[in-house]
Queue: 3 jobs
Job 1
Amino acid sequence: MNPADIAAWRESGGQSFADITKLSDLAMLSGVETVPRLVSPDLPVTIEETLEWLRSVAPRTIVPLDGAAKGKAEGVVVRTATRSQIAKIRFEDYERTMKSKVSP
């Protein structure tokens, strides 16, 4: 398919998502690995707590794509088990926000 058709397919609900159990089963059957999982029942609330939590759970990348990142993790993706809510928590965003909070 060309890129425009792929985008239309995706935007029209063509792309479905599996819940965590089905995803694990599909990955095992396909012989592929899923992304590393972090289980955290209570996520932090404040910017400061979130940056501290992020540093504790992802001090370095587990899956480097190349040497350019020098082992630094970009962040983590958090989601509900059903994938109904998904968010990316990125170091860059939280570090920049913290820097702007202390800068005049």
Job 2
Amino acid sequence: MSQVRTYTRPMAGWWRKNPYFVKYMIREASAPLFYAYALWLLAGLVALARGEAAYNTWRSASSHPLSILLHAVVVVFAIYHTWTWFRVLPKTTPDIDVQPRVLVAAGVAVAVVCCAALFAFAWWATR
């Protein structure tokens, strides 16, 4: 009796054939970079809490040319991530039956309330 040979899809590199998936994978591959950058900023906050000497050490490490290059890479990936996210977002949001003027007015009202709350908090915190 002959054995039936089933098709097994190759898993390595299939996404490279479609430009949509290439862009998606680049965006998703940037997530660990953002995680590492957040840890770096958290290390700066811990250094600030430990005192001036620790914070100055962290700042001197941040001003190293390699660190500045890594900051530039993070900015490039952040811009790319934001650009691709806003291109995908309209495709995922549901259709709504609201006039654009209503949405803009509501957005302005929310922004005014948030700014007023922020200014009130800043005024209260500096008294």
Job 3
Amino acid sequence: MGARGLATLAIAALLPLAACGDEDFENSARPPVPVGLTGVIQDDKVTVSPAEVGAGQVTITISNQTDGPKTITLEGESITERVGPVGPLGTAELTRTLVPGSYEVRAGSEKALRKEIAPATLAIGKERKSSSEDLLLP
């Protein structure tokens, strides 16, 4: 058998493999890229930046810049997530998939405070675009 015959035989053997899996594979859109937010607890208020993002997975890294331990609460749209207590100068992370709506990030303490720490408000808008077109994602 010559080189032309071997090439024809190899192509004929590989053709059935080309169609494998076409019916089982569903090319659905991937979720949006997760967004990282930063926050700070101060004696008088909690701040989170940016304060407005689209819906999807959100990780809030928050630093306690007060003199005492604080429990951090993310609340809104039928979720309540708590982490802590977080010691002075410590950090904590909250990761959730958030739907559109309004959320509050609060810092509390077991010890009575002279005045309440004002919460940060987080506005979650419509869902962010799919990450299907983004390269080099985990």
